[in-house]
């Protein structure tokens, strides 16, 4: 387990801000984003104001305003860190 000063709520709000910011950059209303994503406009409003949304709906919104590969990259394990000098020398 990792120690973090971030909470799940902090991240939810940051993601909501990112979607809202990108929606505005694309000059999309909530209604237009709803049509594009298939997520109802009231759900988009709730997400932008509270950060509350299902994962599926978040992914639908994200792929409508940004590259879904950026979210998918979160599931990629980080490269392993060498545990010994032998591993460092072997990989050099």
Describe the protein in words.
The mean pLDDT is about 95. The chain is an all-alpha fold. About 65% of the residues lie in helices and about 0% in strands. It is elongated and about 60 Å long.
Q: Write the element-wise H/E pattern from the N-terminal end onward.
A: HHHHHH
Distance between the termini: 30 Å
Shape: elongated
Helix content range of the residues, please? 55-70%
The low-confidence parts are none
- The percentage of residues in β strands lies in under 5%
Specify the biggest β-sheet: none
Protein name: Helix-turn-helix transcriptional regulator
Domain HTH cro/C1-type: 19-49
A few lines on this structure:
The chain is mainly alpha-helical and 92 residues long.
Secondary-structure topology with pairs:
Blueprint: H1 8-25, H2 30-37, H3 41-50, H4 55-65, H5 68-72, H6 85-91
Helix pairs in contact: 1-3, 2-3, 2-4
Please name the defining characteristics of this protein:
single chain, 92 residues, mainly alpha
